[in-house]
Design a protein that fits this description.
about 220 residues; 2 helices; mainly beta
């Protein structure tokens, strides 16, 4: 039976600019921390419609649109906010200047924690940040404060990766500690893709099984 768990935690929100996404290459810049993350909400635009022939529904056509995220975070620095939204930052004065937006694409990564204490590791490979929603309010004798909600719209890459002997565009890679088949070291050092994702070797799997067995014997 599969492990029964629910999501109870998210951390390590990072981003990297997509510097090239073409038929030939997919490349990104430096991976950087975005902000403290409180919540990540995701919805995907989908649709299905039936095609009728001879008075019967014989074909179902499915479509999948964008992934729409809301990233609830701590307040961004002005420099970082200008970078992800395509505005201008004046390093001399430290001012963000709200010039017309320059379209930039980014990858984002994060970890989600389950009630069983294990993690899922996520890289989403291409999307744009929207203008953050923010609310400021007067101080009173309470303890309330306000964070930011940053829209992020995820799409498929133009570049086609080798996935199970097939060339295909991708939106994301999601790895689960519960499966325990891929190497997770350095997962957020650079943007992980199907081209640099590595399975654990037989010796690594064997050592882990041995450790788990020893831990079980000690517990008994």
């Amino acid at each position: 039976m599969d492990t029964v768990f629910e999501f109870r935690g998210v951390e390590g929100l990072v981003y990297a600019e997509v510097t090239e996404d073409s038929e030939e290459n997919y490349t990104t810049g430096e991976v950087k921390s975005l902000a403290g993350v409180a919540e990540i909400g995701k919805s995907t635009a989908t649709d299905s419609s039936a095609k009728y022939y001879d008075n019967m529904a014989m074909i179902v056509v499915n479509s999948e649109g964008t992934d729409d995220f809301t990233l609830t975070t701590s307040v961004l620095s002005l420099e970082k906010q200008a970078e992800i939204t395509g505005k201008t930052f004046d390093a001399t004065t430290g001012a963000m200047i709200e010039t017309p937006r320059k379209v930039k694409y980014f990858a984002i990564g994060y970890k989600t924690k389950g009630t069983d204490g294990k993690y899922r590791y996520v890289w989403r490979h291409k999307g744009t940040f929207g203008i953050p929603e923010e609310t400021v309010a007067t101080e009173d004798d309470g303890t309330e404060s306000n964070n930011m909600q940053i829209p992020f719209t995820g799409i498929y890459t133009t570049h086609k990766f080798d996935v199970n002997d097939e060339k295909t565009s991708i939106k994301a890679i999601v790895l689960d500690e519960r499966c325990d088949k891929a190497k997770l070291d350095g997962f957020f050092t650079a943007v992980m893709t199907p081209e640099n994702l590595q399975p654990k070797t037989a010796s690594e799997n064997g050592q882990q099984a041995k450790t788990a067995s020893e831990n079980g014997q000690q517990a008994n």
